[in-house]
Amino acid sequence: MPFRPRAGQPPPGAGTGTATQEKAAYPYAGTDATLKQPVVWNGKASDSDTLTANQQLSGNQKLISQDGNFALGFFQPAGEGSNGKWYIGIWYNKIPVQTIVWVANREKSVSDPVSSNLIISDDGNLVIRLNNSESPMWSTNIKNNTTPNSTIATLLNTGNLVVRHNSNTSIVLWQSFDDFTDTWLPGNKLSRNKKTGIVKQMISWKDHGDPTPGMFSIELDPKGSPQYVLLWNRSVVYWGSGNWTGNSFSGVPELSPTNSYPNSAYTFQFVDNDEETYFAYYVTSDAKIFTRAIVDVSGLFQAFVWIEAAQSWVTFFTQPKAKCSVYGACGENSMCSENAASSCSCLRGFIENYPNNWVLNDHTGGCRRNVPLKCGNNGSMKAKQDRFYLINSVKLPDNAHVVDAANTHDCQLTCLNNCSCTAYSHNGTCLVWHDHMMNLQDNTGGSSDRIFIRLAASEIPNSETKKWWIIGIIIGAFIIIGLGVTIVHFLHKRRISSINQGDRPLIRFKYSDLQFLTRNFSETLGAGSFGSVFKGVLPDTTTVAVKKLEGFHQGEKQFRAELSTIGNIHHINLIRLLGFCSEGAKRLLVYEYMPNGSLDKLLFRDSSINLNWKIKHQIAVGIAKGLAYLHEECRDCIIHCDIKPENILLDASYVPKVADFGLAKLLGRDFSRVLTSMRGTVGYLAPEWISGEAITTKADVFSYGMMLFEIISGKRNLEHTETTMETFFPVLAARRLLAGEVQTLFSSELIGGVHVGDLERICKVACWCVQDSESSRPTMGEIVKILEGLVDVELPPVPRYLEVLAQGIENVGFFYSEPTK
């Protein structure tokens, strides 16, 4: 076989890292882009972790901890809007992803790091000065320092910057660990000093490009209970950890040290004595992992571990679980929905305050009115000028005011008679909201509450006109109904003609057509990296799936040219493109409808459907045939680039259809950038994605192999459970395959009726697909022949890349749970 390893071949992936690659991957703005740059003191280069009284740090100079893991210096945030804004901060020095753990001058940036400097002033304080000004823009504010001229500042291996006496370093005058920003490092304490009343808080950044203190924070419970809490605006508690039970918090059992790694690498400490109350966590000395916890700009409290093999931070803890339970996550005058593709949306008549932040999934800025309210001097004028629209099935906003009103009409008048009233609700009790609404949530199917939102008259059709229409309909009921039926029939026939015009393979839809066919995009089938999918029905009753594309900027001519190519690709295992819409910035694709949805739903989410081995084998072969057609039989080779269960759809007979195969072609050269920025997990990415090599069809083969493991086991390869695990499933399968024990991986119910030889064959294919070297992987055409039993295949080696990845993944608690025998 062409994918059989050659004798004497070095381990795939060995020696692939280069200094050039490391340098290119280091994104810190304003540095020389090396992983460890020496600090320059008076023109002499030397590694240093300490700043003394006769030295200064400016430009691209840095302090580096003795172990080289942390650096301190000037930096620019990686997020948008940070141009020309520089800060002094601490970051991970060896990690090629900008990860800031502390910021000094977070409330006031500097415009030029070369003319600014970090020095120890005459009074012993560490300060930031602009253009050698005598007045510092930031200071450690050390009080009562008895020996100011002998102060030094040292960056410790823990990431803590300390200011202390040079002659007696055990005396710490100030430390960055006492000055939390948004990050909690091992060894730091979340505390409350009972004597001074000082409370240490973690406070989120304002947005991803601005470290200014944001709206969310975490601290020990202000009421004194032994727990820590998340707060909005330093006042509203929206989540709590539950009380300390002795080795963990009652509401966060996943952080118990008795659970699987990485928690076994941690020790937790909660102390409550006469001096202080604090909670801290520590990493055992032999763990050798980078870990941190943050309060994100979205209001979530998250913990991460760095996975070296994947070159990314992996989340192993997030609270709260429900995104809409974060107070103020969507800001003012917006709606939060747990099930929507985007959790936050502005109410009708409102627009985003900060649109650029919304693109970065920071919605805390909320929404503002399109048209100001016209509030007159008396109730009658107000009634004519402002109107209301109704939203059903909601969880009502916070801070409602109860007023005396006998019915809904009186409640409405009460709101109209108050210029600051923005909404009302009446369900036996009249509730009104003034100025701004916060935490309005969509609760479809779970609540009968409804709310009336006040808008300017121009935002809502004239109610007087509507009333006359009602009168006219009543008077001329039979005439209007008859005329209406005639008009509807005429328009329906005209719409059918418009939709089906021409003999081209693809139907060109108008945007208004798709609004009509999808009932204004009211029924969502799913959402992915490139847009949401909605259910629609054509005039001939054919059900379709309509996908709204996001982030596509091709010109009209180029878009249609690419679609004409994709539209001519027909295969039983590829989703069929029926039509498209291209109007201005609107890009939509119309596909055939798949009643059994996506493969991930059937494998991982719908426990009521049991896919037997015959169906699983049918799915595996069908996907391989679809990819083989794209790779080997099309006029132009098409690399999918995003093979995963979410992109495999199933028809009524469970025949698989590869979906979104045209997006790689539509995106063209931008696809790798888009995929890199949008991928949710690293579970399906071939090593060449991470190393930056050119992508070939073998990247799809690797992704197919990782997915094949999931089809066999019925579980995510990166699944996290609370059970004690053995190892990462793909590695475990490869090892058991070599030992001739692959059948021991599965319960009898899971593989009932399957021949051991068939099971070994499909596991061999999966293991060959995920080999490190592209040349060692089979083609999709060869995979089809093997799965159909036409070609035999030898035992594969355990992929080295997966073994390395498994070591990192096991460090964050993602494991395969073996079935009970």
From TrEMBL:
Domain named Protein kinase: residues: 519-791
SUPFAM superfamilies in the cross-refs: alpha-D-mannose-specific plant lectins, Protein kinase-like (PK-like)
Region of interest: Disordered: 1-20
Primary residence: membrane
Annotated binding of ATP, by residue: 548
Organism superkingdom: Eukaryota
GO function terms (MF aspect): ATP binding; carbohydrate binding; protein serine/threonine kinase activity
GO annotation, cellular component aspect: plasma membrane
Boundaries of every Bulb-type lectin domain copy: 48-176
EC numbers on record: 2.7.11.1
Gene3D superfamilies in UniProt: Bulb-type lectin domain, Phosphorylase Kinase, domain 1, Transferase(Phosphotransferase) domain 1
Catalytic activity entry: L-seryl-[protein] + ATP = O-phospho-L-seryl-[protein] + ADP + H(+); L-threonyl-[protein] + ATP = O-phospho-L-threonyl-[protein] + ADP + H(+)
Biological processes per GO annotation: recognition of pollen; response to other organism
The Apple domain, residue ranges: 375-456
Subcellular location, record wording: Cell membrane
The UniProt record lists the keyword Disulfide bond: yes
Membrane topology: Single-pass type I membrane protein
Family of this protein: Belongs to the protein kinase superfamily. Ser/Thr protein kinase family.
PANTHER family associated with the record: OS07G0415500 PROTEIN, RECEPTOR-LIKE SERINE_THREONINE-PROTEIN KINASE
Full protein name: Receptor-like serine/threonine-protein kinase
Organism ancestry: Eukaryota, Viridiplantae, Streptophyta, Embryophyta, Tracheophyta
